[in-house]
Amino acid sequence: EIVLTQSPDFQSVTPKQKVTITCRASQSIGSSLHWYQQKPDQSPKLLIKYASQSISGVPSRFSGSGSGTDFTLTINSLEAEDAATYYCHQSSSFPFTFGPGTKVDIK
Amino acid sequence: EVQLVESGGGLAQPGGSLRVSCAGSGFTFSSYSMKWVRQAPGKGLEWVSYISSSSSTINYADSVKGRFTISRDNAKNSLYLQMNSLRAEDTAVYYCARGEGDVWGQGTTVTVSS
To answer: Rounded CA gap, B56 and B1, in Å?
Structure first.
């Protein structure tokens, strides 16, 4: 099973600040890594697919990069509405797995 | 409008069974793989199962293998998860999602308790 680790676990950020969340896979997964945002009592929302592909309707301040085992989600100029938990997810090999999540709080 | 709607959640006893469903609309359901993802109270997301568009490929998390069965009926635009031998640790909100997860349902709550 491919284990995904995320860092940090929690981040408290001021508006307009840049946020970087990393996801590391226990073995190479190519670019089969997706990022989701989940707000309390809501379903997850896809932000980035296949490491760096943008999703229609997702603000351009969200971007992704990486391949192999190391991946990054970047939120440029954080807005108050970005307070949420962010998860990475690999679909390279079964069983698919999720990272433990990174909670982003607004100061 | 592209939509997924789950149903069938509820209370089940340990060792019991439950079937949850997911109805798709607003898109060509038969063209997409589907997956089930669950979230225990206060916990993170856990991938549960995957089914390809034609049902030719099916896979499960180790935690549910041998107890849960995923299936789909493309004629009815529906996805199913049959859950048997339920345990307390299966208590969660169960979500269905399309493909890489560009569309999610609202979730259905399954509680396993005596």
So the answer is: 28
How close A59 gets to chain B, by Cα (Å)?
Answer: 15
Strand partners, A97: A90
Residues 6-35 of A with CB under 8 A from B: 34
Confidence tier at B28 by pLDDT (50, 70, 90) = very high
pLDDT in tens, A27-69: 999 999 999 999 999 999 999 999 999 999 999 999 999 999 9
User: Does the beta-carbon distance from B37 to A49 stay under 8 Å?
Assistant: no
Whole-angstrom distance, CA of residue A53 vs CA of residue B14: 42
Whole-angstrom CA distances from A102 to A13, A38, A98 are: 13, 10, 12
Report the residue of A96, A97, A102, A103 to disrupt the B interface, i.e. the one with the largest count of B CBs within 10 Å: A96
Q: Are strands A10-13 and A102-106 parallel, antiparallel or unpaired?
A: parallel
Cα–Cα distance for residue pair B21/B5, rounded to 1 Å: 8
Residue B77: how many CB atoms within 10 A of its CB?
17
Q: Inter-chain contact A44–B37, Cβ cutoff 8 Å?
A: yes
Cβ atoms B21, B8 nearer than 8 A: yes
Residue recorded with tokens 């079964």: A94
Q: Does A97 touch chain B (CB under 8 A)?
A: yes
CB B24 within 8 A of CB B74: no
